[in-house]
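Issue 218. Parser rejects a valid record. Input:
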Amino acid sequence: MRAHPRRQPLFRLDDSDAAVVAELCRCLDGLPRALEFAGRWTLVRALAELLAEVKHSPFGLTAPPMTAEPARDLMVRLRRTLGRLSPAGVSFLATVARDHRSWSVAEAAAAVGTSGADAAVIVFTLVTYGLVRPESPGVRNRASPCSTTSAICTPRRAGNPGAGARR
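Output the parser choked on:
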């Protein structure tokens, strides 16, 4: 877990979390790659939620969520990334990007009419794809759409030529 804060700068391990992290390590057999992938979920889920998920399904959080995109043009990359989302992911993103404000996974789930677990999977995908970002330290489990994402996902309007490119 020593390397984790360098990859997730919002993550702060404190005494209250140490027991949960130790149990996560035990459940994942201390496998570095499994711990790295599971640790990325701290962007959208609390440690206790991760532990419960790993105990329920030890492989559910331990697969890489995405692959790197080599294209340089941001708009091309964003459109390609949006094209990789499931229809549910596209619909979810369009809904949460509409308001241009932060939201919790539970709030987003309620807004789109899905379960918290399904919303967490979609939010995790959106965060790892760089389409939404976690809020600042101290604001656990809240995210907001990146401005470039909002520009693509909101209806086309004057002065916003990239908007409405994907639905």
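Fixed in the parser; the record now loads. The CA atoms of residues 4 and 39 lie 7 Å apart.
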